[in-house]
């Protein structure tokens, strides 16, 4: 039987400190993406706390499924934005998404198979990945999307001005 101590090896079960903490340095400037990221942090924080209190790995597997669902939906929204703006680095960005998705899928399976997983390592990895991906990869994409949208707004204003001057 899997016990609480086996799933939280290395973790501080009574640790009340928030771990996935949102900060202004994580804003990309795209309102929809930022809202998604904040929700992602909220879910990860709640799951981490649940995992510290969970009695068995299978229960954590269910919770990690929820994280996986949200991550996949969020990645799909980002990829749709990149496709809509003809983002030149779409393939590399998508590859980062694919690798993280595979990692979370593996974690879910490990929990379901009742394999002992060092939860501290999971959360450390996820937090590091999220911070890096948001601050580097997502921010570049958001800047590009903003520039494209500004360009389109400029073209629209120019054509309206042309119409008015005729
Ligand atoms: Fe992304």
What does this structure look like?
With 166 residues, the protein is mainly alpha-helical. It has one domain: Up-down Bundle (Four Helix Bundle (Hemerythrin (Met), subunit A)), CATH 1.20.120.50. It has 5 helices and no strands. It has helices at 4-7, 31-53, 57-84, 90-112, 119-165. α2 runs antiparallel to α3 and α4 (90-112) packs antiparallel against α5 (119-165). The longest helix has 47 residues, at 119-165. Residues 1-12 have low confidence and may be disordered. Fe (ii) ion (FE2) is lined by residues 78, 93, 97, 133, 137-138.
In this structure, how is the largest beta sheet organized? none
Order of helices and strands: HHHHH
Shape category: elongated
Q: Supply the CATH superfamily name.
A: Hemerythrin-like
Relevant terms:
binds fe (ii) ion, 166 residues, 75% helix, single chain, Four Helix Bundle (Hemerythrin (Met), subunit A), elongated, mainly alpha
């Amino acid at each position: 039987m899997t016990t609480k101590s086996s799933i939280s090896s290395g973790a501080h079960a009574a640790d009340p400190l928030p771990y996935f903490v949102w900060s202004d340095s994580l804003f990309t400037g795209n309102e929809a993406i930022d809202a998604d990221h904040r929700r992602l942090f909220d879910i990860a924080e709640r799951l981490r706390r649940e995992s510290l209190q969970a009695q068995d790995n299978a229960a954590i597997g269910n919770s990690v499924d929820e994280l996986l669902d949200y991550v996949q939906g969020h990645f799909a929204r980002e990829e749709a934005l990149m496709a809509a703006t003809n983002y030149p680095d779409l393939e590399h960005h998508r590859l980062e998404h694919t690798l993280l998705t595979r990692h979370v899928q593996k974690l879910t399976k490990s929990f379901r198979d009742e394999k002992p997983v060092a939860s501290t390592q999971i959360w450390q990895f996820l937090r590091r990945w999220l911070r890096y991906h948001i601050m580097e990869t997502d921010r570049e994409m958001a800047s590009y999307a903003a520039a494209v949208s500004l360009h389109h707004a400029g073209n629209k204003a120019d054509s309206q001005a042309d119409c008015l001057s005729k």
